[in-house]
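Handout, page 2. Input:
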Amino acid sequence: MANPSLAAAPPRPRRKRQRSFTTERRPGFLVYGILLAFFLGSTYPLWYSLVIGSSDPGVFASAWPPLLPGGQFWHNVAEVFNTVDFWAALGNSLVVSSVITLSVVSFSTLAGYAFAKLRFRGREGLLVFVIATLAILSLFTFMTAWTDYLWPMLVAPQNPTLQVALSQLQSARYVDYTIVMAGALMATIPLLVLFVVAGRQLVSGIMAGAVKG
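Output:
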């Protein structure tokens, strides 16, 4: 009689080999080229402001504009501070832009009443879209209020914002555009910081809402 322990074990089922196919395709050179063109086109005004704002007035007499910044930037910034009350204007711009943004977003959130009281098809997806729009709205409303000139000049001429204060750099007889460009660049730096900080939170909020939806 054969020993059962010596009996052959049943063959193990063979695992089917699964081939992994990657459906994701990496962007090609055309996509990177288009992105690079958009990047250069959007950053060129800032670079040009830096180049002119860091040069002396003789830069406009040359046949070709320089490609690299000069060494007069801090001198031109000092002239801006001596001509206008930059820090007071900066504080006024922060107050005005923040109040306008909070007012616009607060009144826009009243649209949530319809989502809270009504039940209709596509309500969840539309709610995510409205929340994302209110977020893509707060950022652009702040930027629009920051760069506004006519309304702050009419409402509060005694407490000028940055845009109104920087207009004092342009006199009727002579305009030193190196000083104007230096002031414009200094007024743009807070917007860049806000866009970098709020842009990351905006994108992460939109992605989180899309995943939950």
